Amino acid sequence: MFEQETILAHISEKKILLVDDEKDIMDLIEDVLCKDGFQSILKASNGREAISLCKHYNPEVIVLDIMLPDIDGIEVCKKIREFSYCPILFLSSKNDDVDKILGLSSGGDDYITKPFSPREIVFRIKAQLRRQQYNQAGTYTLKSPKLTIGDLLIDLDGCRVYKSEREIELTARELGLLCYLAENQNKIISKERLYEQVWGEDSVGCDNTIMVHIRHIRKKIEDNPANPKLLLTVKGLGYKLVKRDD
Asked: Model's pTM, two decimal places?
């Protein structure tokens, strides 16, 4: 088990506020959070409602869409910062550096662009919760959880992967798959489970999708993708990420 499983004990008690005027997106994020053990999830479809819920319930983390029908997310963040310092993760369809800087400078803690992997949202929420608990415990020197597998370094908090100290560019889906396998190192994970965890959808007809993504990941992390040493196929059962010391 990883250290974060201990640090994030009682995860069901953590209040998460989702703010988005697109109900389908909120429902998707809520579903994946529930599968991960979160039980106290609040939802708001506009800025004013978000501010009110934040004042009343004091959530541990807020996932905030920038484009809202009444007050834009930047202004909502500024108003929340008048009374709360809980982590705020921005969601946006804009990928410009200027928009990211504007969001983070207004008081946001993270910035995620659409389309996104639901699992990525969960990873980033957990990262913020870990930082909160580290600070509350006074363990400021504690480093973010990182996992070394061969010449790979997987930074679970930062959602970054390095091979021989060089960062690897992964798509959101590839990152979600690799991080989920890393969280379950040496365990066989079925294609169905991988798909449900990373895509947040039923796994009907997922075989080809998973196989393609696994092949792309191997091209990026393996020395010889045709003869993988880290990301293995267990015939008829699924995949597992293993650490080889030899």
From this structure: 0.59
